[in-house]
Here is the input.
Amino acid sequence: MTIRYTLLLFINFFLCSCSSIYYYPTTNAYYVDIDKLNPKPEIINFKTSDGLILVGWYFKTQQKPKGLIVHFHGNAQNVSTHFFNLWKVGDIGYDYFIFDYRGYGFSQGKPNPKGTVLDGLAALKWAKEKQEERKAKDLVVFCQSLGGPICMKSLAEQNEVHPTALVIDSSFYSYRSAARGVARSSWLVWPFQPIAWLMVDNSESPIDDLHNLKAKQYLVVHGQDDRVISFSNGKRLFEKLPEPKELWEIPHGQHTDFLFNDNGKYRIKFYTWLNKL
Here is the structure.
C-alpha cells in the first residue's frame, strides 16, 4: 500500500507540477547572521526586466580588484548556504557577488524556468556594471548544479556580457536528462523515467544554445561519484562546449563539493587557475 501510494504521488507530481521538482527555496530567512560575518556582505537589490526585486550579497575585496565573480547557486535554500563556496576570494583580489533567484531568500516572485533566466540576465547586467565601476579586468561566471543551465541560457540570450571564464560545477544542459537521471537513481521510481523525460519542461534548457555562449574560456568540474547529477551529465556538457575548455574530474567527488575536498587541494588549484586568467 505504501509503495503504491508513493508511486501515485510521483505520477501526480510530474503531471501537475513538472517544473517544481527543481526548486527547493528557503524564503524570507537566512541561515547565518550577516552581522557576524567577516568579511560582511553588502546587501544588493536589483530589478529584473519583468519588474521583480532580487536580492544578492556582494563581497568587496580590500585589494585592487583583479576581477569579479558572479555566482549562480544551486536549487536549494538561498544565498546564505551557498556563499561559503567563494566568500574568501577577496583574499586573492576578487570581488564576489552571489544572488537569489525569484522566490529564494528575500527575492520577490516564484521560481520557474523562464523567470530564473530573466533573473540571470539581470544579475549579469549588474555584475558587468560593477566590474566596470571597479575597473576590474576579469568577469568570471561561476555556476553550480541548477545554476548551470540558468547561467548558460542567460549568457546565450544576451550580447553585452562576455566573461573571461565560465566555470560549471556539478551541472547539466538538459532539464529532461537531469530529471531522468534522478528517476533512474531510485528503484522505486525507475520505471517512470519516460514520464520524467516527457513531462518536464525543457524549453529553457541551454541544450541548443551552447554555441552562443560568450565566455572566452570554460572550466567544467564534476565529481566522479556525484549521485545528484551524474558525472556523465557533466562530461556530455563538456563535450558540447566550445574551445578553449578544461575538464576537472574529481575522484570520489560528490555534488558541488570540490572546493572542500582533500583538505582544500582543489580550492588551491582553483585559486591558482583564477590567478592565471
User: Anything to note?
Assistant: Confidence is low (pLDDT under 50) at residues 1-17, 186-190. The two ends are 58 Å apart (CA to CA). Strands lie at 24-25, 42-47, 53-59, 67-72, 76-77, 94-99, 138-144, 165-169, 218-223, 245-250. The helical segments are 2-16, 79-82, 113-134, 147-156, 175-184, 193-199, 231-240, 265-275.
